[in-house]
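Lecture 7 notes: from sequence to structure.
We start with the chain below.
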Amino acid sequence: MKKTEHGFSAVEILLAVVLLLLLAALTVPSLSAALNAWQLDADARKIAATLMSAKLRTASQATRYRVHFDVAHNSWSAQRFNRTTGNYEDIADEPAMSLSDGLSNSGIHLMADSASGPAGFPTASSEFIIFNSRGIPVTDTGVPNNVIYLSNRSTSYAVTVSEVGRIQLWKFNGSLWVTE
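Predicted structure tokens for the same chain:
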């Protein structure tokens, strides 16, 4: 090297690497928390979209549809009522969906119940949300239980279907449920 050319010494490079590692160590946890919150919101919106799809199909095809929630396996699927057999069957072009696809160890899960619920809705999650041929939620036993809860370690969401078929997304802010 010529005397007029200057490079970085090994100490300077080492110091820069240490500072970058320190910066990464400080930002990764907050970035991870933000990604987890976005994934929880996306999962809640996927559930709402599946419910909306089932509701719209009921009206367009004049038959019952339901969304089945498998809390133990954190999954759900849309099903169509087969009038011939009297049973609900999975929809071929809509496979079962799972929570938090692609984000390992997210801690996001469907909940069987919640300590509280949005006003007018029960605290227990529904196993099925059924829509009649007009897109109105129904049950075989009377009053519909049209809510599903999901949560990560710090935030809870609820997806509800009102008695008239309105699908809403709720977030628990620590003291009360607010619509998203």
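Points to note: DSSP finds one helix and eleven strands in the chain. The chain has one domain: 10-179.
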